[in-house]
Amino acid sequence: MDSAAPPLTSRADETAAGQVLDLLTGLIDAVDWLYGHWYLLALAIAACWGVGEVVLRRLAERASAERMALELVSNRHFDPDLEEIFRRGVQLARASTAMPWWAPRRAKTVQIRLRADGSTPLRYRVEGPVGGERLLSITPFGPDITVNRARPIVDEPRKHTVRAEFILRGKVTSPLREVPLAPDPLQPLVDAVSDLRAELGDLAEIRLDVQRAPKWTLRARRLQLMSAARRSEHREAQRAARWLRQDASGIEDSWGGQLQQLLSDRPGSGAGRRLVMPPVPRRVEPAEALGKLAEDDHLVRIQLLVMCASNIEGRAQARLAQLQAALDVFGSRSRWAMRGWRLGPRRLGADHWPTRRGFERRWNLGHCQPPRANWVRLEELTGLLKPPTVNCRLPVLAGDLPTFEFGDPEFLLQGIYRGPDGRQRLVATYAEETLFEVGVGKAGGGKTERALAQAIGWAHAGGGLVFVDPHRDSWPRATTFLAHAHLAPRIALVDLNALGPNPMVSSWNPLGMHHGQAAHEVVEAIADAYASTLAWDDATAPRALTILTATLAILVAVNEAACQAGRPADQATIFHVRALLTDAPFRTAALAAVAGRLDEETRSWWKAVFPTLPPDAFAVILNPLARLSASPITRAFLGQPVGVYNIRAAMDSRMIVWVCPGGNGPTDRLLTALLARDLLRAARSRRDTPERQRVPFRPYFDELITLTGAAPETIAAMFEDLRKYRCHVHGMTQLLSRLPTPVRLSLVQNASTLATTAGSTSAIAPITAEWGDNPSPHRVATMERFEHFVSLNVRGHRVGPIQLRGPHLDDVFADQARPKNVPALERAAQANAGALPLDQLHIRAAGQLGRVTAFLAAHAPAGASSARLSKDNEWN
């Protein structure tokens, strides 16, 4: 063995060192090669990234295909608290992960869509994974929210579209502004889209994607923020030390410092420069440095996309600017800002290459790829996690309250609505839904003018109505706008105000049977009118009610016999009640003539009970009739055997009837009660017509206080029953509190439309109380003249109360004014009502008792059976 040979360990070390050297040399050569061929490495990385991106997109598209949509609709009482909204946010964040395990993160999102297209103020939709539907359907908001399964929305292409993506600018760790719940945080967004016009193709939509924060991304972000905070602190410490040294050097080099040094420069004084201790960097607190990113709980990433469109150039851009201003409300140290770059007058953003394609992909597929800065806590999104609340003032759009179209029988004019953009339009309700209407307000406030405009619009649309006005002021006001040739055959005027020396008066026989009424209905209507006016009932006046009912039954039977005999001109009138009760020969002839038409009980009463009654028992019945007979107008109006007035025929033939009773005294109240009860009887008689064949008819009652003073129970029954017979009552009054309790309760309970003008707070309070004092009585009391607050029913939903301006006839129907045709209309209206000179009617009424007596004498054995008669003399 050679003693000079190296040891084995040395050879091994040399071999290892050579291998390491070769490895280093190879690495250096590889790096040098890659440096020389860097483009190959870039291509490889790009290819890997491209393949990975394609795979992720395909998986995300597949996952996005399995999504569902829910639409949340809030009612007018929706008023959630912060805890309920926060719990909803937790549900949204949890539902965003209800995806298959293979779904990419960009597909794991829940999207809130706030959409306005002019049909509704703001639609609130939530879209998310199918797996989260159960979680999203059950909200913590309670019964004030309705959750409906929503269908996909397909938009027609608009000519002009703008897009924008909003990111959080400012300090990343700072929260957005804490916006209070009252007023609603959505109010700025609602105001921004309040003037959208569907006919112009306007559209605005905001999409907020909520995604749970990825842990690894959050940790990396925290490390970055902590490092940045430490570097900042070190820089601050170095800056402070530098300034400290400069200050110390400045002091020592100053005259004072040099003098102090000379004075202290003695042996043992320890002279020399003082030692300056640099400040130590302050410890960085994670809570201070990380801010809202310090905790993992309830931290989400968000993506905010906005799109506005219109068929009119410039409107979409203006809408986007309005939405951007609305989002500024949420800004504080952190704020929403539009993503992109501004180059002079132009902005390069989501509408331009290269970001537009990515925006549209995310918009269409619902993918969430938010910027790095879009980290928020759920508390910051409070205003966007719920639909509009009770504190949100929603605009009234054409989809909520239709626009009035003149001549269309589908609509009923309500007033003039001024939109948020200042544009005014005539608004209406659907006629078939407006069952009853109540208008309250002080005299001269515009309630009658509004009713007249509504009635005139309804008349021009072909509808039938009766306008009952005790003071007649509405008739000359309306004639200018009703004086059209096509309306003249349908208009009738029943005027009992005795204008002129020999006025023209119509005629009505409440007991007349020539129109084919049912006998028992006629008797019941007159007896009830009497009882209502005189406050009779079975407890206070049983004998008077019995006598009156029996007397009316005889006279109605006489009239039925006269009509059946072909002699309607020989019918008795209501003034013949006196003759039947006090004239024995007339009573004997009448009972003999109708004996075959009476049942045994009625004949027995007249034979056994009537002779025992004292004469003073009739006074309570005859006194009101004596007052009616003393008035020449009512004597002429009610004393004709064949009256022309027939409200049932007016209903069926779409007549436009103006009835002016002429006062509110005791006599007038009885006449008004008779007319009101006859209207109720006629409406109820429509039960003989199938429901679909009943022609809609609208009674308008001006001065309800006057009318209900005569017939409170009758008016109350109208507000309760007449909708079944397609008769829809409109009432106007100055004071709701002065109406009788049954009337007040019935009309408020059943009113489809409730309106009030300005007035005293005590008078308005009962109306505003129905609206929950929103608006308050003080606000309503200070309105201008012709302004109204109105609550309406549209498509089964209540709209309002909203403020409308009452329509003024001279403005709204200026094109329909025909003042030159008014005299011709007056003549036609009187002719249609069968009006004759007062003296002529007096002569006929005075001789009617003789004609009835002659008929009874000639038909004493009359026993013809009762039958329904044809309506030969009805209005056409």
Assign the structural class, choosing from mainly alpha, mainly beta, alpha/beta, alpha+beta, or little secondary structure: alpha+beta
Roughly what percent helix? 40-55%
Question: How can the largest sheet be summarized?
Answer: 9 strands, antiparallel
Uncertain parts? 862-876
Count every beta strand, where a strand is a DSSP E run of 2 or more residues. 24
SS strand fraction: 15-25%
Instruction: Quote the distance from N terminus to C terminus.
Output: 147 Å
**Discrete helix count:** 30
Gross morphology is elongated
Mean of pLDDT: 84
Radius of gyration: 45 Å
Can you walk me through this structure?
The chain is an alpha+beta fold and 876 residues long. Helices cover 42% and strands 16% of the residues. It is built from 30 helices and 24 strands. Helix 19 crosses helix 29, helix 21 crosses helix 22 and helix 23 (712-721) runs parallel beside helix 24. Residues 862-876 have low confidence and may be disordered.
Secondary-structure map:
Layout: H1 8-36, H2 38-64, E1 67-74, H3 82-95, E2 110-116, E3 123-129, H4 133-137, E4 145-149, E5 160-170, H5 187-192, E6 203-212, H6 215-252, H7 255-263, H8 286-290, E7 299-310, H9 315-327, E8 334-338, E9 341-343, E10 346-348, H10 356-365, E11 375-377, E12 411-418, E13 424-430, E14 437-440, H11 447-460, E15 464-468, H12 474-482, E16 491-495, E17 504-505, H13 519-534, H14 542-564, H15 577-582, H16 584-593, H17 600-609, H18 619-630, H19 632-638, H20 647-652, E18 656-660, H21 666-684, E19 697-701, H22 704-710, H23 712-721, E20 730-733, H24 741-750, E21 753-756, H25 761-770, H26 777-781, E22 787-794, E23 797-805, H27 809-812, H28 822-832, E24 836-837, H29 838-846, H30 848-858
Parallel strand pairs: 14-20, 14-21, 15-18, 15-19, 16-18, 19-20
Antiparallel strand pairs: 1-3, 1-4, 2-3, 2-6, 5-7, 5-8, 6-7, 7-11, 9-10, 12-13, 17-24, 21-22, 22-23
